Amino acid sequence: MGGADLGDRRRRLTPLRPVADKTGQTANLGVLDGAQVLHICVTEPDRPLRFMAPPGTRDHAYCTGLGKVLLAHVEPGLLAASTPDEPFPALTDQTIVTLDGLAEELRVTRERGYALDDNERSAGLRCVAVPLLIGDECLAAISVSGPSGEFTEKQYEEYVGELQAAAAGLTADPDFDAALRIVHRSLRPAGFLPAAGT
Prior knowledge:
- About 35% of the residues lie in helices and about 20% in strands.
- The protein has helices at about 5-15, 15-25, 65-70, 100-110, 155-170, 175-185, and strands spanning about 25-35, 35-45, 60, 115-120, 125-135, 135-145.
- It starts with a helix and ends in a 14-residue tail after the last helix.
């Protein structure tokens, strides 16, 4: 197998590798599974200081970049059922803890086309995420996450540009579309909250 063929195969197996390489941050692809984000693809940069979340990791939707961009495309009537009881658990002093505050954040997210997690999930960690839109459906989202000090306003703009370019490539791929739809068959609908202790 030629080097070019091998490189193409690696890119197909790790579609977020170019994003991680260009930004130097951890690139994530996630879907909404009930009220949680499920990480289905995570590509880490080649550096010692980085955000780590293995594929299969679940996280809160209301305080993460991936989660907020996915919740921004949920039917408004399902938002309350897709979040914890108020006040939401404050994981840091930046966490949005009310439904009204989250709804406003999601409105801004829809308007600008991307979501931010500004030290809301973990102190010292920032994230920016964009939706993967196929037609009118938001089937998933991709993000980059890393140390807060590396997410300046200029870098946010660069990261959003890289993510939007990657999103355009992924959503134009019919095989990727088909794979995401298969994944969605096993997901819980928006508004489904797991039982306590699960």
